[in-house]
Each structure stands twice: as structure tokens, then as C-alpha cells.
Amino acid sequence: MKLIYTHENRLLVELAKSRLEVAGIKTRLKNEYAQGATGELAPNQVWPELWLERDRDLERARQVLAEAEAEVDSNSWFCQACGEDNGAAFDYCWQCGEPKPAGAD
């Protein structure tokens, strides 16, 4: 088994797991419930981890996750008022509240 992804935000790890499973890549989640040990262990040691069940899927898994990240980055927009970079899910600038400009979809 190979570690493919880890992050302090469990939601992002679950999203990566979902993307890989849709692509037919089998994964296993570890440290799902380890955050209760925070303080006893270093913070990054209790982050959820996503592992590949088959080592041969490593390159394909990296490609799937890279494509997903590029898709998210390509849909972001910059606020005209404050210049903040906002993710595609935001209809208003998270920094100043300015609405997303028309055509920024």
C-alpha cells in the first residue's frame, strides 16, 4: 500500500477518496478517528491519510488528483474590489463580500 494523500481537513481527504474511487482506484482511509490523540502526538501524525490498495495505481491516482486540483484552480476568480483569489464555489468574495463579476463562471 502507498500513501497518496493526507491533509488536516478530513473533508478534503474524503473528496480525494471519492475522486479516486470514481476513477476505479481502490483506496483505504487511515487515521479516521485519530484526531482525539492531538496533543499526545504531533498534529500531522493524526491527520487522515488516504492509501492506495494497489501500488500499481500510484501514477494513475496522482494524475486523477492533479486533474481535480487543476479543475478547481481553473474555476477560481479574482475579486475586482480587493484582488482576493476566490474558489469557484464562492458567489461573493470571502474577504470583502463583493459579488462575483458576471461571466466569471
Structure description:
The structure is a single chain. By secondary structure, this protein is α+β, with helices and mostly antiparallel strands. The chain has two domains: 2-74, Alpha-Beta Plaits (2-Layer Sandwich), CATH 3.30.70; 76-105. It has two helices and five strands; from the N terminus they run βαββαββ. The strands form two sheets. Strands 1-3-2 form a three-stranded antiparallel beta sheet, with helices on one face. It starts with a strand and ends in a 19-residue tail after the last strand. The model has no long low-confidence stretch (mean pLDDT 87).
From the spread of the alpha carbons, the general shape counts as flat
Highest CATH level, the class of the largest domain: Alpha Beta
Total DSSP E strands? 5
Number of helices: 2
CATH architecture of the largest domain: 2-Layer Sandwich
The major sheet is characterized as: 3 strands, antiparallel
Instruction: Note the beta-strand portion.
Output: 15-25%
Give the fraction of residues assigned to helices. Answer: 25-40%
Q: Taking all residues together, what is the mean pLDDT?
A: 87
Integer-rounded radius of gyration: 17 Å
Query: How are helices and strands ordered from N to C?
Result: EHEEHEE
How many separate domains? 2
Oligomer: single chain
What is CATH's topology name of the largest domain?
A: Alpha-Beta Plaits
Widest sheet: strand order?
Answer: 1-3-2
> SS-based structural class?
alpha+beta
CA-CA gap between termini: 39 Å
Which regions contain 5 or more consecutive residues with pLDDT less than 50? Answer: none
